[in-house]
Amino acid sequence: MISISGLDYLKSSSELQADSIPGGVLYLIIEDDTFTWRKASKSFDLDIFKVGENLSEKSIAKRAMKEKKTLVENIPRSIYGVRLKTIVEPLVNDKGECVGAFSIIFPLIHPIMSSFKDFAPVLAEMFSEGAVIYATDLQKLILKQASSSFDVDFLKPGKLVSESPITKKVIESKKEAVQEINDPKIYESKLLITIEPIFSSENKDEVIGTLGIAIPKKVAQNLINMSENMETGLSGISAAIEQLAASASQIHTNEQKLNQEISEVSSLSEQIIELSYFIKKIADETKMLGLNAAIESARAGEAGKGFGVVSQQIRKLSDQSKETVPKIKSLTDKIKEKADNSSKMSENSMFSSQEQASATEEVTASIEELTALSTELNKIAHKL
User: Fold this and answer.
1) Under a CB-based contact definition with an 8 Å cutoff, are residues 78 and 139 in contact?
2) What is the dihedral of CA 136, 137, 139, 145, to 10 degrees?
3) Which among 60, 186, 271, 362 is most buried, taking Cβ atoms within 10 Å?
4) For 285, what's the count of Cα atoms within 13 Å in the CB-facing half-sphere?
5) Phi then psi for 320, rounded to 5 degrees?
6) d(Cα 316, Cα 175) in Å, to the nearest integer?
7) Which 3 state secondary structure label does DSSP give 103?
8) Which residues lie below 8 Å from residue 211, measured CB to CB, with a gap of 6+?
9) Are 345 and 233 in contact (CB under 8 A)?
10) Which residues form a coiled coil (predicted)?
């Protein structure tokens, strides 16, 4: 307790100390039930407890006066809009009677909140894609620092905690939470928000607010888009190559059949040549028979004239047949030559189509590997 006789000294020392206390302070003197004096520092003041006003019956100062002892109490933000710590010391007269109180009110500012303006600008610029650092009390967002390259409008001072389910969750659970936002109305790419609870310096189990960091995920979003486009494109290419492989296989089958047909034509040419040799042989023998018939006709004289005419026609037909054989052979040789050339071309085409089919299978396998890779890339991008 403080003697009322030292009240002037108390006022003088309070005025000297008011602006030297970190965070600020408000000094109040109550005599009887009335505020008779107040001194606030330049950095902190409250538009309450004015000189001439009466003391509330429920106030801590009233209780300190009744109990004649020093009382200390923390006042929640919900009452005056700021967390406060109040120390009340009773004032007594020479008889030891309580005649008033000396009250000291400090704003309770968490070290994170008090140093926010110092560390937040540096921290925000440390992220490659930029960041927004912000802090809330139990009611609203009170501090915000955006980097030079990134900012979002939905995080702004005054935003109510009740409008942010994740912030409410952090306050209620007293645990960190992470949220991913993918809403073009809020931001053009994905956002990752991490929120940590801020605990009271006096009571390590009491949450007094939150500290949040919002960062864009443009790189991850671009990576996702690229991998999805790559996967779609590869699927189309793979389908086209499969169709090409099927066509190449069909061409190869057709080439095999064509080659077989050409071989059969070549075989027929050989048979025609053999047949022409047989015709030549018959022609030679027919000519010999005609010659023998002519000789016998000559021997027979007048009686064999008719037979001689027949033998002459036989020799003539034999000569014509014999002349036809070289022509047949010439044509057959040309057919065989063409068939051989076609066979070689068919074999080359068949070999090429076979190589094409093999190459297509290799490309298809490579496309499948790339597709699998793009899928894994997509998964990694979603984890970023």
Assistant:
1) yes
2) -20
3) 60
4) 6
5) -65, -40
6) 120
7) strand
8) 112, 133, 134, 135, 195, 196, 198
9) no
10) none
Distance, in Å, from the CA atom of 16 to the CA atom of 375, rounded to the nearest integer, reads 70
Residues 34-56: pLDDT tens digits? 999 999 998 888 888 899 999 88
Report the C-alpha gap between 43 and 354 in whole angstroms: 88
CA distance 357 to 370: 20
Residue 8: pLDDT over 80: yes
CB-based contacts of 140: which residues, under 8 Å, 6+ apart? 157, 158, 159, 160, 161
Residue 52: phi and psi, rounded to 5, are 100, -15
Residue 326, classified by CB atoms within 10 Å of its CB into exposed (0-12), middle (13-18) or buried (19+), is exposed
Dig out the tokens for 132 from the structure: 């927004």
d(CA 252, CA 20): 96
Q: Tokens 């309070």 sit at which residue?
A: 14
Residue found under tokens 């030679």: 284
β-pair partners for 332? none
Cβ–Cβ < 8 Å for 86, 104: yes
The answer to whether 330 and 313 have CB atoms below 8 angstroms apart is no
Instruction: For residue 255, give both structure tokens.
Output: 């080439």
What whole-number distance in Å separates Cα of residue 242 and Cα of residue 363?
10
- Return the number of other C-beta atoms located less than 10 Å from residue 313's C-beta: 11
| Six token digits for residue 265 | 């034509």
Return the closest-CA partner of residue 216 out of 151, 136, 135, 121.
Answer: 151
Q: What is the DSSP string of 166-234?
A: HHHHHHHHTS-EEEEE--TTT-SS-EEEEEEEEE-SS-TT-EEEEEEEEEE-HHHHHHHHHHHHHHHHH
